[in-house]
Amino acid sequence: MVLCDIGNSYLHFYYNGRVWKVQAEKLERDEALLPLYYISVNQKKTRKLLESFPEAINLAPYMMLDTTYKGLGADRIAACRGISDGVIVDAGSAITVDIMQNDIHLGGYILPGLATFGKLYRAISPILGSDLNLAIELNAFPQNTRDAVSYGALKSILLMIESSAKNKKLYFTGGDGKFLARFFSGAVQDDSLVFKGMLKSIDTLNDRHKD
Amino acid sequence: MVLCDIGNSYLHFYYNGRVWKVQAEKLERDEALLPLYYISVNQKKTRKLLESFPEAINLAPYMMLDTTYKGLGADRIAACRGISDGVIVDAGSAITVDIMQNDIHLGGYILPGLATFGKLYRAISPILGSDLNLAIELNAFPQNTRDAVSYGALKSILLMIESSAKNKKLYFTGGDGKFLARFFSGAVQDDSLVFKGMLKSIDTLNDRHKD
To answer: Which residue of A has its CA nearest to B93?
Structure first.
Protein backbone atom coordinates (compact mmCIF):
# COMPACT_ATOMS: atom_id res chain seq x y z
CA MET A 1 0.00 0.00 0.00
CA VAL A 2 1.44 3.37 -1.10
CA LEU A 3 0.39 6.87 0.06
CA CYS A 4 0.63 10.09 -1.96
CA ASP A 5 0.42 13.68 -0.64
CA ILE A 6 -0.13 16.02 -3.60
CA GLY A 7 1.24 19.51 -2.81
CA ASN A 8 1.58 22.66 -4.91
CA SER A 9 5.16 21.81 -5.94
CA TYR A 10 5.58 18.01 -5.77
CA LEU A 11 3.80 14.71 -5.28
CA HIS A 12 5.14 13.17 -2.07
CA PHE A 13 5.01 9.37 -1.83
CA TYR A 14 5.22 7.07 1.21
CA TYR A 15 5.82 3.34 1.36
CA ASN A 16 6.84 1.37 4.45
CA GLY A 17 8.34 4.39 6.24
CA ARG A 18 10.20 5.52 3.10
CA VAL A 19 9.32 9.00 1.70
CA TRP A 20 10.17 10.38 -1.76
CA LYS A 21 8.93 13.17 -4.06
CA VAL A 22 8.14 13.26 -7.79
CA GLN A 23 7.31 16.12 -10.18
CA ALA A 24 3.80 15.73 -11.68
CA GLU A 25 5.28 15.90 -15.23
CA LYS A 26 7.68 13.03 -14.52
CA LEU A 27 5.02 10.73 -13.05
CA GLU A 28 4.76 7.27 -14.68
CA ARG A 29 2.42 4.36 -14.02
CA ASP A 30 3.99 1.66 -11.86
CA GLU A 31 1.86 -1.32 -10.74
CA ALA A 32 4.17 -1.70 -7.72
CA LEU A 33 2.64 1.53 -6.31
CA LEU A 34 -0.84 -0.04 -6.00
CA PRO A 35 -3.06 0.11 -4.02
CA LEU A 36 -2.50 3.91 -3.96
CA TYR A 37 -4.22 6.29 -1.50
CA TYR A 38 -3.88 10.07 -1.95
CA ILE A 39 -4.81 13.49 -0.59
CA SER A 40 -4.34 16.73 -2.56
CA VAL A 41 -4.35 20.53 -2.33
CA ASN A 42 -3.71 20.96 -6.07
CA GLN A 43 -6.39 20.02 -8.65
CA LYS A 44 -4.09 20.08 -11.69
CA LYS A 45 -1.53 17.76 -10.13
CA THR A 46 -4.36 15.48 -8.94
CA ARG A 47 -5.48 15.06 -12.58
CA LYS A 48 -1.90 14.11 -13.50
CA LEU A 49 -1.89 11.42 -10.80
CA LEU A 50 -5.28 10.02 -11.89
CA GLU A 51 -4.11 9.86 -15.54
CA SER A 52 -1.41 7.37 -14.48
CA PHE A 53 -3.32 5.80 -11.56
CA PRO A 54 -7.09 5.98 -12.29
CA GLU A 55 -7.74 3.57 -9.41
CA ALA A 56 -6.05 5.80 -6.80
CA ILE A 57 -8.33 6.40 -3.79
CA ASN A 58 -8.89 9.93 -2.41
CA LEU A 59 -8.67 9.76 1.40
CA ALA A 60 -10.05 13.30 1.96
CA PRO A 61 -13.63 12.09 2.66
CA TYR A 62 -12.27 9.90 5.50
CA MET A 63 -10.16 12.66 7.09
CA MET A 64 -12.02 13.60 10.26
CA LEU A 65 -10.69 16.41 12.48
CA ASP A 66 -12.32 18.25 15.40
CA THR A 67 -12.01 21.87 14.18
CA THR A 68 -14.06 25.00 13.41
CA TYR A 69 -11.57 25.95 10.66
CA LYS A 70 -13.27 26.29 7.25
CA GLY A 71 -11.38 24.94 4.23
CA LEU A 72 -8.48 23.26 6.00
CA GLY A 73 -6.33 21.49 3.38
CA ALA A 74 -6.33 17.69 3.43
CA ASP A 75 -2.56 17.69 4.04
CA ARG A 76 -2.97 19.88 7.14
CA ILE A 77 -5.84 17.71 8.42
CA ALA A 78 -3.65 14.62 7.93
CA ALA A 79 -0.68 16.17 9.75
CA CYS A 80 -2.95 17.31 12.62
CA ARG A 81 -4.34 13.76 12.90
CA GLY A 82 -0.72 12.64 13.27
CA ILE A 83 -0.48 14.21 16.78
CA SER A 84 -2.75 14.97 19.79
CA ASP A 85 -0.98 18.00 21.28
CA GLY A 86 1.50 20.47 19.82
CA VAL A 87 2.19 22.84 16.96
CA ILE A 88 2.69 21.46 13.44
CA VAL A 89 4.84 23.42 11.01
CA ASP A 90 4.65 22.15 7.42
CA ALA A 91 7.33 24.13 5.57
CA GLY A 92 7.07 23.92 1.79
CA SER A 93 6.33 26.60 -0.85
CA ALA A 94 3.92 27.81 1.82
CA ILE A 95 4.46 27.33 5.56
CA THR A 96 1.32 26.19 7.37
CA VAL A 97 1.24 26.32 11.17
CA ASP A 98 -1.52 24.41 13.01
CA ILE A 99 -2.17 24.19 16.75
CA MET A 100 -3.50 20.97 18.30
CA GLN A 101 -4.68 20.46 21.90
CA ASN A 102 -6.23 17.21 23.20
CA ASP A 103 -6.96 16.06 19.62
CA ILE A 104 -8.75 19.36 18.93
CA HIS A 105 -7.51 21.73 16.19
CA LEU A 106 -7.44 25.27 17.70
CA GLY A 107 -6.73 26.97 14.35
CA GLY A 108 -3.75 27.81 12.20
CA TYR A 109 -2.16 30.26 9.80
CA ILE A 110 -0.13 30.42 6.59
CA LEU A 111 3.23 32.06 5.86
CA PRO A 112 5.13 32.26 2.57
CA GLY A 113 7.76 29.51 2.30
CA LEU A 114 11.46 30.44 2.35
CA ALA A 115 11.83 29.99 -1.44
CA THR A 116 8.65 32.02 -1.99
CA PHE A 117 10.08 34.89 0.07
CA GLY A 118 13.02 34.98 -2.33
CA LYS A 119 10.69 35.21 -5.37
CA LEU A 120 8.64 37.86 -3.54
CA TYR A 121 11.61 40.15 -3.02
CA ARG A 122 12.55 39.78 -6.71
CA ALA A 123 8.98 40.81 -7.59
CA ILE A 124 9.40 44.07 -5.65
CA SER A 125 12.74 44.98 -7.22
CA PRO A 126 15.56 43.16 -9.05
CA ILE A 127 17.94 44.79 -6.52
CA LEU A 128 16.30 42.66 -3.79
CA GLY A 129 16.35 39.51 -5.91
CA SER A 130 19.39 37.60 -4.66
CA ASP A 131 19.09 34.12 -3.13
CA LEU A 132 18.48 34.21 0.61
CA ASN A 133 21.48 33.85 2.93
CA LEU A 134 20.14 31.21 5.33
CA ALA A 135 23.35 31.36 7.42
CA ILE A 136 22.41 34.93 8.40
CA GLU A 137 23.28 36.12 11.96
CA LEU A 138 19.90 36.75 13.59
CA ASN A 139 21.19 38.60 16.66
CA ALA A 140 22.81 41.53 14.83
CA PHE A 141 21.20 43.99 12.40
CA PRO A 142 22.05 43.26 8.73
CA GLN A 143 24.64 45.41 6.94
CA ASN A 144 23.83 44.70 3.27
CA THR A 145 20.81 44.11 1.02
CA ARG A 146 21.08 40.31 0.72
CA ASP A 147 21.35 39.90 4.50
CA ALA A 148 18.54 42.47 5.00
CA VAL A 149 16.03 40.42 2.96
CA SER A 150 17.29 37.08 4.37
CA TYR A 151 16.97 38.38 7.94
CA GLY A 152 13.48 39.70 7.19
CA ALA A 153 12.30 36.38 5.74
CA LEU A 154 13.90 33.93 8.18
CA LYS A 155 13.49 35.91 11.41
CA SER A 156 9.80 36.70 10.73
CA ILE A 157 9.12 32.98 10.18
CA LEU A 158 10.98 32.03 13.39
CA LEU A 159 9.26 34.74 15.48
CA MET A 160 5.83 33.57 14.28
CA ILE A 161 6.54 29.92 15.13
CA GLU A 162 7.98 30.94 18.52
CA SER A 163 4.95 33.09 19.34
CA SER A 164 2.48 30.28 18.61
CA ALA A 165 4.56 27.49 20.21
CA LYS A 166 4.84 28.93 23.75
CA ASN A 167 5.29 25.76 25.90
CA LYS A 168 3.84 23.40 23.27
CA LYS A 169 5.89 20.75 21.46
CA LEU A 170 6.89 21.68 17.89
CA TYR A 171 6.60 19.21 14.98
CA PHE A 172 8.30 20.13 11.70
CA THR A 173 7.63 18.54 8.34
CA GLY A 174 7.95 19.53 4.66
CA GLY A 175 10.97 20.44 2.52
CA ASP A 176 12.32 23.14 4.85
CA GLY A 177 11.16 21.38 8.03
CA LYS A 178 14.59 19.98 8.86
CA PHE A 179 16.26 23.40 8.43
CA LEU A 180 13.68 25.28 10.55
CA ALA A 181 13.59 22.60 13.30
CA ARG A 182 17.26 23.34 14.06
CA PHE A 183 16.26 26.72 15.54
CA PHE A 184 14.03 25.17 18.24
CA SER A 185 15.41 22.96 21.02
CA GLY A 186 13.34 19.84 21.58
CA ALA A 187 11.56 20.20 18.24
CA VAL A 188 10.60 17.02 16.38
CA GLN A 189 11.29 16.74 12.64
CA ASP A 190 9.12 14.10 10.95
CA ASP A 191 8.79 13.84 7.15
CA SER A 192 6.04 11.24 7.54
CA LEU A 193 3.68 13.25 9.79
CA VAL A 194 1.11 13.75 7.01
CA PHE A 195 1.37 10.09 6.07
CA LYS A 196 0.85 8.95 9.68
CA GLY A 197 -2.44 10.86 9.64
CA MET A 198 -3.34 9.28 6.30
CA LEU A 199 -2.68 5.81 7.74
CA LYS A 200 -5.08 6.57 10.64
CA SER A 201 -7.75 7.51 8.07
CA ILE A 202 -7.22 4.27 6.18
CA ASP A 203 -7.93 2.41 9.44
CA THR A 204 -11.18 4.43 9.73
CA LEU A 205 -11.99 3.51 6.12
CA ASN A 206 -11.30 -0.20 6.67
CA ASP A 207 -13.27 -0.28 9.96
CA ARG A 208 -16.26 1.10 8.04
CA HIS A 209 -15.99 -1.60 5.42
CA LYS A 210 -15.95 -4.20 8.21
CA ASP A 211 -19.42 -2.98 9.35
CA MET B 1 11.73 74.25 -4.21
CA VAL B 2 10.14 70.82 -4.72
CA LEU B 3 11.45 67.41 -3.54
CA CYS B 4 10.81 64.03 -5.23
CA ASP B 5 11.35 60.57 -3.71
CA ILE B 6 11.25 58.00 -6.53
CA GLY B 7 10.14 54.61 -5.20
CA ASN B 8 9.38 51.31 -6.93
CA SER B 9 5.66 52.11 -7.22
CA TYR B 10 5.24 55.91 -7.25
CA LEU B 11 7.05 59.22 -7.42
CA HIS B 12 6.41 61.00 -4.11
CA PHE B 13 6.55 64.81 -4.19
CA TYR B 14 6.98 67.33 -1.36
CA TYR B 15 6.38 71.07 -1.37
CA ASN B 16 6.04 73.28 1.72
CA GLY B 17 4.99 70.40 4.01
CA ARG B 18 2.53 69.04 1.45
CA VAL B 19 3.11 65.47 0.14
CA TRP B 20 1.53 63.85 -2.94
CA LYS B 21 2.27 60.89 -5.22
CA VAL B 22 2.25 60.51 -9.04
CA GLN B 23 2.57 57.46 -11.32
CA ALA B 24 5.66 57.73 -13.57
CA GLU B 25 3.47 57.29 -16.68
CA LYS B 26 1.24 60.23 -15.70
CA LEU B 27 4.13 62.60 -15.01
CA GLU B 28 3.99 65.93 -16.94
CA ARG B 29 6.37 68.89 -17.02
CA ASP B 30 5.30 71.74 -14.77
CA GLU B 31 7.59 74.77 -14.36
CA ALA B 32 5.99 75.40 -10.96
CA LEU B 33 7.81 72.29 -9.66
CA LEU B 34 11.26 73.85 -10.24
CA PRO B 35 13.85 73.80 -8.77
CA LEU B 36 13.37 70.04 -8.31
CA TYR B 37 15.59 67.83 -6.11
CA TYR B 38 15.21 64.04 -6.20
CA ILE B 39 16.44 60.72 -4.81
CA SER B 40 15.61 57.36 -6.39
CA VAL B 41 15.69 53.59 -5.88
CA ASN B 42 14.26 52.90 -9.35
CA GLN B 43 16.32 53.61 -12.52
CA LYS B 44 13.40 53.33 -14.97
CA LYS B 45 11.22 55.78 -13.07
CA THR B 46 14.22 58.12 -12.70
CA ARG B 47 14.54 58.25 -16.51
CA LYS B 48 10.83 59.16 -16.72
CA LEU B 49 11.37 62.04 -14.28
CA LEU B 50 14.41 63.33 -16.19
CA GLU B 51 12.48 63.22 -19.51
CA SER B 52 10.05 65.80 -18.07
CA PHE B 53 12.53 67.56 -15.77
CA PRO B 54 16.05 67.31 -17.28
CA GLU B 55 17.28 69.94 -14.80
CA ALA B 56 16.23 67.92 -11.72
CA ILE B 57 19.10 67.53 -9.23
CA ASN B 58 20.00 64.11 -7.75
CA LEU B 59 20.61 64.58 -4.00
CA ALA B 60 22.10 61.07 -3.48
CA PRO B 61 25.74 62.31 -3.66
CA TYR B 62 25.01 64.72 -0.79
CA MET B 63 23.31 62.10 1.45
CA MET B 64 25.83 61.39 4.20
CA LEU B 65 25.04 58.77 6.86
CA ASP B 66 27.28 57.15 9.48
CA THR B 67 26.76 53.45 8.66
CA THR B 68 28.62 50.24 7.71
CA TYR B 69 25.59 49.07 5.64
CA LYS B 70 26.53 48.46 1.98
CA GLY B 71 24.00 49.58 -0.66
CA LEU B 72 21.55 51.43 1.58
CA GLY B 73 18.87 53.02 -0.65
CA ALA B 74 18.85 56.82 -0.91
CA ASP B 75 15.29 56.90 0.52
CA ARG B 76 16.39 54.93 3.61
CA ILE B 77 19.43 57.19 4.06
CA ALA B 78 17.18 60.24 3.82
CA ALA B 79 14.68 58.85 6.36
CA CYS B 80 17.52 57.95 8.75
CA ARG B 81 18.91 61.47 8.45
CA GLY B 82 15.45 62.66 9.51
CA ILE B 83 15.99 61.35 13.10
CA SER B 84 18.87 60.80 15.59
CA ASP B 85 17.49 57.92 17.68
CA GLY B 86 14.77 55.37 16.98
CA VAL B 87 13.50 52.79 14.52
CA ILE B 88 12.24 53.90 11.09
CA VAL B 89 9.63 51.76 9.34
CA ASP B 90 9.04 52.75 5.71
CA ALA B 91 6.04 50.65 4.65
CA GLY B 92 5.48 50.56 0.89
CA SER B 93 5.65 47.69 -1.63
CA ALA B 94 8.59 46.67 0.56
CA ILE B 95 8.87 47.45 4.28
CA THR B 96 12.32 48.70 5.26
CA VAL B 97 13.22 48.87 8.95
CA ASP B 98 16.28 50.88 10.01
CA ILE B 99 17.72 51.39 13.48
CA MET B 100 19.33 54.72 14.45
CA GLN B 101 21.26 55.51 17.64
CA ASN B 102 23.01 58.83 18.33
CA ASP B 103 22.95 59.71 14.60
CA ILE B 104 24.59 56.35 13.79
CA HIS B 105 22.80 53.77 11.58
CA LEU B 106 23.09 50.36 13.34
CA GLY B 107 21.69 48.40 10.37
CA GLY B 108 18.31 47.42 9.01
CA TYR B 109 16.26 44.82 7.21
CA ILE B 110 13.59 44.42 4.54
CA LEU B 111 10.17 42.75 4.68
CA PRO B 112 7.60 42.30 1.91
CA GLY B 113 4.95 45.04 1.98
CA LEU B 114 1.36 44.16 2.89
CA ALA B 115 0.19 44.30 -0.75
CA THR B 116 3.23 42.24 -1.80
CA PHE B 117 2.32 39.53 0.74
CA GLY B 118 -1.08 39.26 -0.96
CA LYS B 119 0.58 38.74 -4.39
CA LEU B 120 3.00 36.27 -2.81
CA TYR B 121 0.23 34.04 -1.52
CA ARG B 122 -1.49 34.13 -4.93
CA ALA B 123 1.80 33.01 -6.51
CA ILE B 124 1.83 29.91 -4.26
CA SER B 125 -1.78 28.91 -5.00
CA PRO B 126 -4.94 30.62 -6.30
CA ILE B 127 -6.68 29.22 -3.20
CA LEU B 128 -4.51 31.53 -1.07
CA GLY B 129 -5.04 34.51 -3.37
CA SER B 130 -7.76 36.52 -1.64
CA ASP B 131 -7.19 40.13 -0.50
CA LEU B 132 -5.83 40.31 3.02
CA ASN B 133 -8.26 40.89 5.89
CA LEU B 134 -6.46 43.69 7.75
CA ALA B 135 -9.15 43.73 10.47
CA ILE B 136 -7.98 40.25 11.51
CA GLU B 137 -8.06 39.35 15.24
CA LEU B 138 -4.39 38.82 16.17
CA ASN B 139 -4.97 37.22 19.59
CA ALA B 140 -6.93 34.17 18.37
CA PHE B 141 -5.84 31.51 15.86
CA PRO B 142 -7.48 31.98 12.42
CA GLN B 143 -10.39 29.72 11.41
CA ASN B 144 -10.39 30.14 7.61
CA THR B 145 -7.92 30.50 4.72
CA ARG B 146 -8.29 34.26 4.17
CA ASP B 147 -7.74 34.97 7.88
CA ALA B 148 -4.87 32.43 7.96
CA VAL B 149 -2.87 34.29 5.28
CA SER B 150 -3.83 37.73 6.65
CA TYR B 151 -2.75 36.72 10.16
CA GLY B 152 0.52 35.32 8.77
CA ALA B 153 1.35 38.50 6.85
CA LEU B 154 0.25 41.14 9.39
CA LYS B 155 1.40 39.43 12.60
CA SER B 156 4.84 38.56 11.21
CA ILE B 157 5.37 42.21 10.22
CA LEU B 158 4.23 43.42 13.68
CA LEU B 159 6.39 40.87 15.55
CA MET B 160 9.46 41.91 13.56
CA ILE B 161 8.92 45.62 14.25
CA GLU B 162 8.25 44.89 17.93
CA SER B 163 11.41 42.76 18.25
CA SER B 164 13.64 45.49 16.78
CA ALA B 165 11.95 48.41 18.56
CA LYS B 166 12.43 47.26 22.18
CA ASN B 167 12.44 50.58 24.12
CA LYS B 168 13.27 52.73 21.07
CA LYS B 169 10.85 55.25 19.55
CA LEU B 170 9.11 54.06 16.34
CA TYR B 171 8.75 56.30 13.27
CA PHE B 172 6.38 55.14 10.52
CA THR B 173 6.30 56.44 6.97
CA GLY B 174 5.21 55.18 3.52
CA GLY B 175 1.80 54.14 2.18
CA ASP B 176 1.01 51.63 4.96
CA GLY B 177 2.80 53.63 7.67
CA LYS B 178 -0.38 55.11 9.10
CA PHE B 179 -2.07 51.69 9.31
CA LEU B 180 0.92 49.96 10.98
CA ALA B 181 1.57 52.84 13.41
CA ARG B 182 -1.84 52.19 15.01
CA PHE B 183 -0.51 48.95 16.50
CA PHE B 184 2.24 50.66 18.53
CA SER B 185 1.47 53.09 21.35
CA GLY B 186 3.61 56.24 21.21
CA ALA B 187 4.62 55.60 17.60
CA VAL B 188 5.12 58.62 15.32
CA GLN B 189 3.62 58.60 11.82
CA ASP B 190 5.34 61.09 9.50
CA ASP B 191 4.85 61.06 5.71
CA SER B 192 7.59 63.66 5.29
CA LEU B 193 10.39 61.79 7.12
CA VAL B 194 12.32 61.06 3.89
CA PHE B 195 11.82 64.66 2.76
CA LYS B 196 13.11 66.05 6.08
CA GLY B 197 16.32 64.12 5.46
CA MET B 198 16.47 65.45 1.89
CA LEU B 199 16.10 69.03 3.17
CA LYS B 200 19.07 68.48 5.52
CA SER B 201 21.14 67.33 2.51
CA ILE B 202 20.15 70.42 0.52
CA ASP B 203 21.55 72.52 3.37
CA THR B 204 24.80 70.52 3.10
CA LEU B 205 24.79 71.12 -0.65
CA ASN B 206 24.18 74.89 -0.28
CA ASP B 207 26.82 75.20 2.46
CA ARG B 208 29.36 73.65 0.02
CA HIS B 209 28.44 76.15 -2.70
CA LYS B 210 28.99 78.94 -0.18
CA ASP B 211 32.65 77.88 0.22
So the answer is: A124
